[in-house]
Structure formats: C-alpha cells, structure tokens
Specification:
single chain
Length: about 325
C-alpha cells in the first residue's frame, strides 16, 4: 500500500475544510496609507464587498508610514488565520523592495497573494494658480524656471514619485520633489498651493478637479479615461509615457489554502458586478481580479521590473 499517496490525498481533501467555518468573527483589512488616498478608497470599496460576500464585518485599519512598510509588516507578522488582510498596491509591494536597503519584511515571501482587485491610471494635477493648462505648457514653464517648481508625492519611491521622475527624465526638466506620508496630505498641500504639482490616483483627485480646486493636465494611461474624456494622456505630449497602478489583497504567508480560496472567491464575486464596474470607471480604474497564483506571479515580475526602473532613475536604496 502506498501510504505517501494516501496521506497526500487526505491532505488535499482536507484543504477546503480550513475555510468551512471561516469567517466566524470580524476581519481586519490593513490599509498601509492614510485615509482619503487611492489605496484607502480601494480598500474601503473592497472591504464592503468582502463584508457582503462573507457575512462578517471587514474593518478598515489605516496604518500609514514608511511608504506602506509599517502596515505591510503588521500583516506579515500577524497570525495566518485569515483575520488580518492587507490592501496592497504596486508602490508598497513591488517598488519598496528595490527602494529600501533593509526591508522590515519580504513581500514576496512573507505575504500570500489573494487576488488583484483593480488597475488604474493616475492623474497629473496642478494648483489652478500655476500658468500651465496642459502637459506641454507645464514642461515649457518648467524649462524656463529650473528648480523653481515643486511636485508632491505620497512618499519617496512611491508610484506618484516615480511617475514624476519618469516625466523629468523623458522631458529633461528640473522640478523639485517634496515627499509626504501618503497621498491625502500631499493632495491637501497642492490644493492649498504650498506645492504646485502632483501625480496621484484619479480616485482621490477627481472630486477636487470637478470642484475647480485642482486643474487636471493629463492621465498616465495609454488612452483617455471615459470619466474624463476631456483630459489628454500625458503620452499625447510626451510620446511613450505610460504608467498604471494596481491594488490587491494579501494575507500572511502560511494562511491555509482553503481560507485564501474563500477570500479569493469573495473578491472575484463581489468586485465583478456592474455596480463596481461603474464605480471603477468613475474612479479612472478597472476591475481586474485573478487567481492567487496569477497574482503572485505578477507581483514577482513587477518587483524585478521596478528595481530596474529605480536603478535607471538613479534612485538608490535607502
């Protein structure tokens, strides 16, 4: 009798049982950035759909700091029981390993991917007092004022930062980086006029653009957005420019496969509805769920790609 095959069969058969009684209490979804930013907006949208699908309350826990590393470490060190989740984004998960010489945790090893949630464009916005009404005019103005125009970001090495650095490299302009601890405070200072420009998630900028507090110059996607058809792509003025951001859910490594599958199914079902599709379109994003294996492969590929971008931009690990 082949006992190894029998044991293997029982192990596989038992996997779904791990998730049969799950969840039996509230779940914490850690958002590693301040409230109000694009990661927080996607986290709250995802948390509500998880609550609807799982029947247990999903509580949002904002743990900002270190460009997402603080919240990421909290989840990575949590018990792998499915009750502590992470709302990750390409900045905190894929960029940070190439940005920090010593990471407090390893996203590729200490976290287990559950599902991609969405992908989206970012929007380049300026304070209305800046005499530039297009990307082309902004570039021309920056060239006449080297070092005089500031741009905000949600943190050194964040996607917002790298988007602006890419613009600098591709247009040979000299603008000064002002890092913040999250998108929300960066956005507030651009609205207040303390900083002139910011490239941020459409979800966090849209209301301020429509309200006239900010002027949108361009979006980072290859095509114009359905929600803002009047806003050109940055690539229309700077050929070849394109950046997309992504958001997804993770759990601590070692979380039982049955629980990961239960969460994945809830995300896929909850996020793939017309209601969410319409919400995503309004936010300049698209629903993009996948399997844990596909999400994990994507994350590893992105970590390697962003490490190359950081080196090319001359941004050294801290």
């Amino acid at each position: 009798m082949n006992w190894s095959r029998i044991l293997a069969w029982f192990a596989l058969a038992a996997l779904p049982a791990w998730g049969q009684d799950y969840p039996s209490r509230p779940i914490r979804l850690v958002v590693p950035y301040p409230a109000g930013g694009p990661v927080d907006i996607m986290g709250r949208l995802t948390g509500q759909k998880l609550t609807d699908q799982l029947g247990s309350q999903v509580v949002i826990d904002n743990r900002a700091g270190a460009n997402g590393n603080i919240g990421g470490e909290i989840v990575a060190r949590s018990s792998p029981d499915g009750y502590t989740l992470l709302m990750g984004a390409n900045g905190s998960i894929a960029v940070n390993p190439g940005l920090y010489r010593k990471m407090p945790y390893d996203p590729a090893k200490d976290l287990a991917p559950v599902s991609l949630v969405s992908t989206g464009a970012l929007m380049m916005v300026v304070h209305p007092s800046l005499p530039a009404k297009s990307v082309g005019e902004f570039v021309a103005l920056a060239k006449t004022r080297p070092g005089a125009i500031n741009f905000a970001s949600s943190g050194a090495g964040s996607t917002a930062h790298l988007c602006s650095e890419l613009l600098k490299v591709m247009t040979a302009i000299d603008i000064v980086h002002v890092p913040y601890k999250g998108s929300a405070p960066a956005l507030n200072d651009v609205i207040g006029g303390q900083v002139q420009m910011l490239i941020t998630g459409v979800s966090s900028a849209a209301g301020h653009v429509r309200g006239g507090k900010l002027r949108a110059l361009g979006v980072t996607s290859a095509k114009r957005l359905a929600a803002f058809p009047e806003v050109p792509t940055i690539g229309e003025a700077v050929p070849g420019y394109e950046v997309l951001t992504w958001y997804g859910v993770f759990v601590p490594a070692g979380t039982p496969a049955g629980i990961v599958q239960r969460l994945n199914g809830a995300i896929v079902t909850g996020m793939n509805t017309k209601e969410i599709h319409d919400r995503m379109t309004a936010l300049g994003a698209e629903t993009a769920t996948n399997t844990p294996a596909a999400f994990g492969a994507m994350v590893k590929k992105e970590i390697a790609q962003w490490a190359k971008v950081l080196r090319a931009a001359g941004i050294r690990p801290e």
